[in-house]
């Protein structure tokens, strides 16, 4: 049987005695086996009395060699080397190695209890030769003994906490807890003790649970707000040699309302100009409160109230803003004085006793005079005027004055942007408003204008006032039909039958309401009218037997009068058509019947034929008149006709000797400039004037010439907007011998000889004298 032996320093094990009778020796520790007798008797195996199945090993071994754990030994091992020990289980072969011959167990590296506290392994005893088991598996444990190798650690490096100021001694602030990874069940390695390293004498810490408490009373946030406290946690129950860890706790004193508001100055002087608008601020006052947040919120009020001023609290700056409740007037009152109270809106009952959380200050307001604009006696003005009032009639009066003590004079004017039709005028001195045109209520019932009052000495001081002018009604419009009526009467109608109910409207608005009277001529044989006394009337038939053949349409004049003064009346015409109706009076057709003639032609056909004959006669007469009045039209009808026209002249020139005649060469050659045209009656000073270079290149054909001229006319901005005819006498580029015509002889080069002209006869004598006489060789 395998025996477990622990051979570790610093560890003493007590091994119980086995129940067998064999003595305890290193060779049989743990189990006792029976042995066969030599006499051949079978001896029974004795029971296993006990088994030591646990080794103890210290963690954090720092030696260089393998750490010896223990030794396994079997009774079957006679020391002859035939026994082989085999180890299996947790860490076998890696963490733990066994000597196959001796059974010694070693750890290959250092072990950490915090990673794993116990390992379970199995040991086997085999025959080295046959590899058969000599004994069954034996299970045993290797337990790692803890040492103090872990320092306490806090969950956070920095803790943040707060406690109200003025708290009592012992008020809990925060609890900080550290943890130790060592075994809490073995020794004092994990037993922690808390202490304070920094933060005394303001705070203390409970040594057992790490709760931080206040150590001083009346700690004032206004004196010191933030504190840094360092807490230490030490294991080994705080004994020397124990490991420790620290953390920092940032403690802030939270504010409480322990300080009342106070005015630094109990008297304030404020200046306000009298032109300040109602609701405008004229000054600010402020009380000091060392508290913060809600505890520093203040409320300002005027003691006893005031009819001219009020004070409100600016929630952002906690200032008291003095505002105007009533308009100031320097001329009426210049100085005011009142008392202001300030107090906290939130009070802490713990600090009310013995303290007044309010304060008072006196405010004096001085009103300054300003140059005020004129003020009107009323604002706005409402004036009534009758319509149809003649131009220049009186409408009303506005009045304004300078409120300053000087009472400077003012002048009046109408803002013409509010009177674009220029219907009104105002006297600049006394403010009397008159009409410039007659007013019509039916066009506009109200006129809203703005009157401007300006100080004469200071035109920048102006005031506007709206003037609402109501145009009162005058009965100047006659009533008329309310709508256009489509009235018909049936051919089979009877006398006294209703055919139409009419009503009227009037653009006037009398005070007592409209009252219209309807009437028609009493001699009307066809219709009669009945006034219903409600501004409507019924049209009735006076007779029956209407016929479309006799009359297809009747025009009935209706006279409508009102009852206002002066009475206005008008005549409206009601058109009544005669229609064919069924027995129930429903209209079927209103077209007039066509009466047949004996020759078979109807009236409509005869009228159409007659119209055709008249039209033909008119066409014939008009055609004859046009032929009679036709005459030759001039070539140019008017000076406005700027189109190109061909004008023919029958004048003949004087021949070759006529030097005053028109130069036909200009017409024949469009390239010659008018500015350089030479006179024919005198010898030119320059024989060869400047010749404009033709835009047509040499040896260009007629097509290119025409295209060039076409482009020039298309791009000419002065050309007429319609098609025109342009004629050019261009013959093409010609031959190499060039043209023999004398029309362009004035444009030849200056190095040409002209002696041959004297041989051409008397006809060219004048020409020869002109050119040969100017030759440079002749002059020399």
TrEMBL record:
<dbReference type="GO" id="GO:0008013">
    <property type="term" value="F:beta-catenin binding"/>
</dbReference>
<dbReference type="GO" id="GO:0016342">
    <property type="term" value="C:catenin complex"/>
</dbReference>
<feature type="domain" description="Cadherin">
    <location>
        <begin position="74"/>
        <end position="154"/>
    </location>
</feature>
<dbReference type="GO" id="GO:0034332">
    <property type="term" value="P:adherens junction organization"/>
</dbReference>
<dbReference type="GO" id="GO:0007043">
    <property type="term" value="P:cell-cell junction assembly"/>
</dbReference>
<dbReference type="GO" id="GO:0000902">
    <property type="term" value="P:cell morphogenesis"/>
</dbReference>
<dbReference type="GO" id="GO:0016339">
    <property type="term" value="P:calcium-dependent cell-cell adhesion via plasma membrane cell adhesion molecules"/>
</dbReference>
<dbReference type="InterPro" id="IPR000233">
    <property type="entry name" value="Cadherin_Y-type_LIR"/>
</dbReference>
<keyword id="KW-0130">Cell adhesion</keyword>
<keyword id="KW-0106">Calcium</keyword>
<dbReference type="GO" id="GO:0099560">
    <property type="term" value="P:synaptic membrane adhesion"/>
</dbReference>
<dbReference type="Pfam" id="PF01049">
    <property type="entry name" value="CADH_Y-type_LIR"/>
</dbReference>
<dbReference type="InterPro" id="IPR039808">
    <property type="entry name" value="Cadherin"/>
</dbReference>
<feature type="transmembrane region" description="Helical">
    <location>
        <begin position="605"/>
        <end position="626"/>
    </location>
</feature>
<protein>
    <recommendedName>
        <fullName>Cadherin-10</fullName>
    </recommendedName>
</protein>
<keyword id="KW-0732">Signal</keyword>
<feature type="signal peptide">
    <location>
        <begin position="1"/>
        <end position="21"/>
    </location>
</feature>
<feature type="domain" description="Cadherin">
    <location>
        <begin position="264"/>
        <end position="376"/>
    </location>
</feature>
<dbReference type="GO" id="GO:0007156">
    <property type="term" value="P:homophilic cell adhesion via plasma membrane adhesion molecules"/>
</dbReference>
<keyword id="KW-0165">Cleavage on pair of basic residues</keyword>
<dbReference type="InterPro" id="IPR020894">
    <property type="entry name" value="Cadherin_CS"/>
</dbReference>
<feature type="domain" description="Cadherin">
    <location>
        <begin position="377"/>
        <end position="481"/>
    </location>
</feature>
<feature type="domain" description="Cadherin">
    <location>
        <begin position="155"/>
        <end position="263"/>
    </location>
</feature>
<feature type="domain" description="Cadherin">
    <location>
        <begin position="481"/>
        <end position="594"/>
    </location>
</feature>
<dbReference type="GO" id="GO:0002009">
    <property type="term" value="P:morphogenesis of an epithelium"/>
</dbReference>
<dbReference type="GO" id="GO:0005509">
    <property type="term" value="F:calcium ion binding"/>
</dbReference>
<keyword id="KW-0479">Metal-binding</keyword>
<dbReference type="InterPro" id="IPR015919">
    <property type="entry name" value="Cadherin-like_sf"/>
</dbReference>
<dbReference type="GO" id="GO:0016477">
    <property type="term" value="P:cell migration"/>
</dbReference>
<keyword id="KW-1133">Transmembrane helix</keyword>
<keyword id="KW-0325">Glycoprotein</keyword>
<dbReference type="GO" id="GO:0045296">
    <property type="term" value="F:cadherin binding"/>
</dbReference>
<dbReference type="Pfam" id="PF00028">
    <property type="entry name" value="Cadherin"/>
</dbReference>
<dbReference type="InterPro" id="IPR027397">
    <property type="entry name" value="Catenin-bd_sf"/>
</dbReference>
<dbReference type="GO" id="GO:0005912">
    <property type="term" value="C:adherens junction"/>
</dbReference>
<keyword id="KW-0812">Transmembrane</keyword>
<keyword id="KW-0472">Membrane</keyword>
<comment type="function">
    <text>Cadherins are calcium-dependent cell adhesion proteins. They preferentially interact with themselves in a homophilic manner in connecting cells; cadherins may thus contribute to the sorting of heterogeneous cell types.</text>
</comment>
<dbReference type="InterPro" id="IPR002126">
    <property type="entry name" value="Cadherin-like_dom"/>
</dbReference>
<keyword id="KW-0677">Repeat</keyword>
<keyword id="KW-1003">Cell membrane</keyword>
<dbReference type="GO" id="GO:0044331">
    <property type="term" value="P:cell-cell adhesion mediated by cadherin"/>
</dbReference>
């Amino acid at each position: 049987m395998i025996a477990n032996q622990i051979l570790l320093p610093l560890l003493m094990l007590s091994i119980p005695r086995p129940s067998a009778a064999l003595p305890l020796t290193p060779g049989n520790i743990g189990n006792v086996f029976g042995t066969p007798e030599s006499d051949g008797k079978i001896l029974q195996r004795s029971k296993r009395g006990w088994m030591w199945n646990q080794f103890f090993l210290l963690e954090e071994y720092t030696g260089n060699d393998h750490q010896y754990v223990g030794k396994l030994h079997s009774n079957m091992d006679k020391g002859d080397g035939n026994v082989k020990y085999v180890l299996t289980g947790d860490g076998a072969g890696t963490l733990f190695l066994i000597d196959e011959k001796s059974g010694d167990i070693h750890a290959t590296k250092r072990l950490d209890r915090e990673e794993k506290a116990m390992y379970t392994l199995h040991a086997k005893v085999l025959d080295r030769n046959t590899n058969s088991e000599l004994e069954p598996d034996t299970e045993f444990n290797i337990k790692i003994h803890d040492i103090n190798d872990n320092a306490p650690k806090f969950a956070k490096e920095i803790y943040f906490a707060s406690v109200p100021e003025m708290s009592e001694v012992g008020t809990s602030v925060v609890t900080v807890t550290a943890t130790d990874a060592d075994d809490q069940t073995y020794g004092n390695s994990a037993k922690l003790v808390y202490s304070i390293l920094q933060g005394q004498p303001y705070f203390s810490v409970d040594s057992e649970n790490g709760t931080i408490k206040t150590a001083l009373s009346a700690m004032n946030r206004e004196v010191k707000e933030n504190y840094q406290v360092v807490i230490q946690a030490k294991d080994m129950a705080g004994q020397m040699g124990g490991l420790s860890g620290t953390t920092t706790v940032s403690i802030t004193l939270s504010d409480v309302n322990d300080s009342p508001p106070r005015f630094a100055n109990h008297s304030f002087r404020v200046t306000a100009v009298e032109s300040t608008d109602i609701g405008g601020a004229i000054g600010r006052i402020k009380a000091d409160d060392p508290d913060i947040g809600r505890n520093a919120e203040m409320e300002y009020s005027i003691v006893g109230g005031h009819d001219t001023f009020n004070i409100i609290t600016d929630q952002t700056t906690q200032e008291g803003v003095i505002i105007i409740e009533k308009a100031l007037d320097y001329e009426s009152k210049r100085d005011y004085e009142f008392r202001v109270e300030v107090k906290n809106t939130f009070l802490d009952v713990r600090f009310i006793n013995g303290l007044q959380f309010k304060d008072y200050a006196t405010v004096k307001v001085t009103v300054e005079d300003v140059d005020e604009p004129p003020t009107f006696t009323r604002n706005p003005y409402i004036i009534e005027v009758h319509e149809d009032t003649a131009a220049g009639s009186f409408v009303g009066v506005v009045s304004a004055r300078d409120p300053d003590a000087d009472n400077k004079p003012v002048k009046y004017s109408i803002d013409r942007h509010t009177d674009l039709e220029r219907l009104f005028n105002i006297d600049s001195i006394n403010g009397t408003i008159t009409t410039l045109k007659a007013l019509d209520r039916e066009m506009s019932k109200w006129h809203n204008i703005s009157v401007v009052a300006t100080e004469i000495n200071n035109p920048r001081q102006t005031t506007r006032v709206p003037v609402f002018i109501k145009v009162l009604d005058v009965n100047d419009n006659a009533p008329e039909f309310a709508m256009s009526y489509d009235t018909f009467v049936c051919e089979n109608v009877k006398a006294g039958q209703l055919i139409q109910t009419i009503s009227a409207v009037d653009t006037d608005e009398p005070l007592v309401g409209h009252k219209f009277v309807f009437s028609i001529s009493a001699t009307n044989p066809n219709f009669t009218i009945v006034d219903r006394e409600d501004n409507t009337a019924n049209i009735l038939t006076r007779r029956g037997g209407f016929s479309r053949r006799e009359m297809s349409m009747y025009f009935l004049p209706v006279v409508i009068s009102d009852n206002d003064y002066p009475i206005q009346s008008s005549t409206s015409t009601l058109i009544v058509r005669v229609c064919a109706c069924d027995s129930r009076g429903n209209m079927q057709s209103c077209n007039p019947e066509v009466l047949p003639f004996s020759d078979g032609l109807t009236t409509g056909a005869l009228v159409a034929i007659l119209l055709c004959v008249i039209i033909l006669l008119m066409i014939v007469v008009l055609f004859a008149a046009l032929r009679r009045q036709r005459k030759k039209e001039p070539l140019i009808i008017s000076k406005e006709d700027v189109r190109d026209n061909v004008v023919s002249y029958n004048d003949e020139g004087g021949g070759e000797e006529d030097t005053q005649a028109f130069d036909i060469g200009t017409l024949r050659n469009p390239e010659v400039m008018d500015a350089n045209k030479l006179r024919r009656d005198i010898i030119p000073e320059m024989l060869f004037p400047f010749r404009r270079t033709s835009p047509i290149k040499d040896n260009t054909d007629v097509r290119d010439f025409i295209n060039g001229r076409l482009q020039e006319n298309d791009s000419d901005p002065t050309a007429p907007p319609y098609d025109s005819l342009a004629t050019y006498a261009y013959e093409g580029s010609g031959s190499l011998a060039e043209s023999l015509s004398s029309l362009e002889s004035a444009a030849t080069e200056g190095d040409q000889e002209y002696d041959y002209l004297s041989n051409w006869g008397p006809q060219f004598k004048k020409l020869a004298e002109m050119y040969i006489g100017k030759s440079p060789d002749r002059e020399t």
